[in-house]
Amino acid sequence: MGIEEAELVRLGVVMGTHGLRGDIKVRPQSPDARTLLDARRIFLRRAGESAVVYNPVRTALHKGIYLLRLEGLDDIDAVQILLGCEVLVRRDDLPETAGDETYWMDLQGMTVIDHRCGELGTLDDLFTTAAHDIYVVNGRFGEVLIPAVDEFIVEIDLPGRRMSVDLPEGLVREPDEV
Length: 178
Description:
By secondary structure, the chain is mainly beta. The chain has helices spanning 76-79, 104-107, and strands at 8-18, 23-28, 42-45, 52-54, 56-62, 65-70, 86-90, 111-114, 118-128, 133-139, 142-147, 153-157, 162-165. Strands 4-3-7-1-2-6-5 form a seven-stranded antiparallel sheet, with no helix packed on it. Strands 11-10-9-8-13-12 form a six-stranded mixed sheet, with no helix packed on it. The termini are far apart.
């Protein structure tokens, strides 16, 4: 199919099978993995090999794991060989984001700058709490945890790969405290 590597976005990895009808269990490796629920095609790739396209005929979320049944693979024996494969989608197949929403993949690796402390470091990770997402930034102040709320996020410059924040005092340890 001639898919360019840069066109594919990794969302998870096949971690096992589910049932006897060929469902695969996908462990999400991106907050954007939720898009698997509506994907009309996915790509599976084993390390060192080319990606192969599949059409999901059933998708579900079960206890934080995505269950997918793929067209033409209708029993457990047919999907055993897929264990360990990366699960990818084409960037162009992702749904448009609404309003000021962005995909995690677009934020990861950005430089984060606070109006008071200057450059905090690189946005490396994200995790979800009951209240909101938390950005994990690593840099000269060590690990800084920033609530992903409008109150603290001033601007996201996607082309410039920079996030400007206005954090309250005490959220960032001063360099002499690090």
